[in-house]
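user: Here is a favour to ask of a fellow structure person. I have my own habits and do not want them to colour yours. Could you put it straight underneath, so I can go through it closely?

assistant:
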Amino acid sequence: MRGVPRVRRAGRRDRQPVYYRLSPEAVYAYFKEIADRSPIDVTLYNIPMFASPIDVPTIARLAEECPRVVGIKDSSGDISSCPA
């Protein structure tokens, strides 16, 4: 398309280790480490049927403390588990 500038946006989507049940603090530490070291934006992936769920306080804490965390993909099927 002529006249339309190309926009390149790099990002990554991360989920916690599968089949291991982690405490909310361990889930937070896992994603914080990724966000702190990542040179690109990070989207959390909540997939509780295979991994420890990311609870609402953890999502809020990561969003507040980690500028690289830019979104969340939620596969829980429970919209009430996601903060507005």
About this structure: The longest strand covers residues 41-46.
